[in-house]
Amino acid sequence: MAERSFYITTPIYYVNGRPHIGHAYTTIAADAIARWHRLDGRTVRFLTGTDEHGQKVLEKAKERGMDPKAHVDDMVRHWKAAWDRMEIQYDHFIRTTDPHHIACVQGVLQRLYDAGLIYKDTYTGWYSKSVERFWTEKDLIDGKCPETGQPVEEITETNYFFKMSGFQDRLVAHLEANPGYIRPESRKNEVLGFLRRPLEDLCISRPKARMGWGIEIPFDTEFVTYVWFDALLNYVSGVGYPDTDDVLWNTFWPVDFHLIGKDILTTHAVYWSTMLMALDVPLPKCMYAHGWWMSNDGSKMSKSLGNVIDINLLADEFGVDATRYFFLREIAFGADGGFTYDGFLTRYNADLANDLGNLAHRSLSMSTKWLGDQAPAYGEVGEAEEAMRELAGVAYREYRTAIEGLQYNKALTALWGLVKAGNKYIDTEQPWRLNRDGSVERLRTVMRTVQEVCAFVGVLLLPVMPNKAKELLGKLGQDERQARDALSALAALEGGPVSFDRLEGNPLNVGDPLFPRFRELPPRIAKLFEAESEPPAPPTPKPQVPKPSPDSDTITFDAFKKVQLRAGTILSAEKHPNADKLVVMKVDVGEERPRNIVAGIANRFAPEDLPGRKIVVVVNLAPTKLRGVLSEGMLLAAGGKEVVDLVTVDAEPGEVVR
Ligand code: ME8
After folding, report:
1. How confident is the model at residue 307 (pLDDT cuts 50, 70, 90)?
2. pTM score > 0.85 for this model?
3. 89 has a pLDDT exceeding 90
4. Exposed, middle or buried by CB within 10 Å (0-12, 13-18, 19+), for 657?
5. Is the dihedral of CA 49, 54, 56, 62 positive or negative?
6. Residue 256 to residue 261: CA distance in whole angstroms
7. Lowest mean per-residue pLDDT among 2-16, 353-367, 381-395
């Protein structure tokens, strides 16, 4: 693979429904990193598409009374439209009904069959339609699919099998020798755990008599290909395989990142890796399994709970760019996240309206009012300006490392460090005072410095908020080509400060604020809640619902739902300076900085016993001072006044507890 090329994929999505927020999340994340590498001068291939075969899709087609091909053709429109709406710049949209893909799947099957790696056998297993796979009896939980809890069906049938078991040792060795193969790290351990049991062979066909919607097996026309075996091959057929002389293949394989949700890790880490081994194709560089978006109380999205998130509604009301920003900024890529419209509004107002929007608007308004409509030349540059340039250098390096490692929230946090510093710089330098006092030289320096900060931030935001970043750069007289040049100049920077020398004499255009502030939820969203909290038509006679007495401790489910619990890891602990019973801890709860938490657990735990413990934290408790030390949350523990143990959970910091 050429050194300056970059290949990223999303899962190909089933066309048994329309795209929702979860699909958009993976796709936005892939788009952001693809845009970053394009901007950085790499040759990029970003592949997404649709998974169009299999039982689920067939049933949906039947439900709609349509021929399956007509159904998938129709559904694909919605997926493409959603990605257009979200500004997704994929390089290729693959469909598993594409002739090249079909030929690729059949070629692979024939090759593995000829090599003796596919055989025919009769098998009995428990089939879960919801995930399109067989489970063994011991996999089932309460007789249901262990992944979805949906019913399973016992099926005995003759099928073709891929000798996956023969690759188990090689796969384990690969995972152990390549720690970055599956990320985050905790997911790799999950796969290794799975591989402690003997790996079975993989059933890769379906008899047409039972389910005929799939790619025909080339050596037995009574069968079609199992949908996962078909779908996974999109990643290689999408870059020319099996034609290994193809320029796409030679430029882009092995893929840099397969982005997937954690739900489909096994199929990728185990099925896909072993399929590639069987084909003697180099393995991907990384499979990155991100977490899930859930409603605030940790339940799945459901209309009756008022927690369905409509991506178009968010885009209509807050804008596409703000929506993209929110999903990448709000949680660590890898952790689960709870979604609320209020949380969205808070993030929007704080980061976009207040921090960035305000920085841009006030620096442009003041500058044009007092210094004319061009970016001013510097007067004398002093320590405060040097500090801003240094900070920009640090932000750039942190941003780059983080975004290239798909740590989007870390990258944006680094950038916001500079945005906040820009606002603070204005507050400290008080340009209004400089103007009043006639200190024009100094005023020029301050205004220009802030404009350079805005232009710098604008360039780095292009991958995340492509339109708003362009708008911001446009206000400063910069176009995309200049932004690209600016990025190459930054890349050439080994370390040290950013020179902030791009804007002199550029036309400035204040225009409207980039992100208008919302005082409350937009009416269309607020209405949604009204509609959903409206009581049903009054029943007659009135039901006698026992109400808790006013002094009862009973709370409603809605009240409980407000408590946000997350997994946290104690990083350090020390005695409270003023209270024997209290311990002061730093706890990682999946945010950019650890929380300070004070807890009355000293009776049971010495500070040195605590680091490394994985605890449960109430994260939305109002911060308070306990005997003079700030506490930003509360941990859960067992025991009354005397604590007997901590409530612990084996999960990554930031994981929702429910
Ligand atoms: O599994 N939060 O397709 P699929 C975050 N066709 N991401 C979510 C999510 C949520 N709540 N819900 C869905 C398939 N996703 C197969 C894939 S690939 C060769 C074949 C995202 O339509 C996430 O990326 O069920 C997840 O892996 C994917 O959608 C599943 O999409």
Report:
1. low
2. no
3. yes
4. buried
5. positive
6. 16
7. 2-16
pLDDT at 381: 95
Number of H helices, E strands in the chain: 23, 25
Mean pLDDT of the chain: 90
Q: Which atom of ligand 1 is nearest to the CA of 17?
A: 22
Q: How far is the CA of 68 from the centre of ligand 1 (A)?
A: 21
Three-state SS for 364? helix
Query: Which residue in the block uniquely carries the two structure tokens 């937009």?
Result: 522
Taking CB atoms and a 6 Å cutoff, what residues make up the pocket around ligand 1?
A: 11-14, 22-23, 25-26, 51, 231-232, 234, 260-261, 263-264, 292-293
> If you search the block for the tokens 């502030």, which residue do you land on?
517
Displacement of CA 348 from its chain's centroid (Å): 17
557-657 matches 340-491 in CATH topology: no
pLDDT at 554 over 90: no
Kindly list the domain boundaries of the chain, sorted by start residue: 340-491, 557-657
pLDDT in tens, 455-485: 999 999 999 999 999 999 999 999 988 988 9
Per-residue model confidence as pLDDT tens digits over 219-240: 999 999 999 999 999 999 999 9
Query: Top-level CATH class of 557-657?
Result: mainly beta
Query: Hey, CA dihedral for 423, 427, 433, 434, is it positive or negative?
Result: negative
Using alpha carbons, select from 569, 561, 642 the residue that is nearest to residue 601. 642
Q: Which residues of 214-232 are buried (b: 16+ CB within 10 A; e: fewer)?
A: bbbbbeeeebbbbbbbbbb
Using a pLDDT cut of 90, give the percent of the chain over it: 69
pLDDT of residue 33: 98
For ligand 1, atom 23, name the residue with the nearest CA. Answer: 261
**CATH of the domain spanning 340-491:** 1.10.730.10
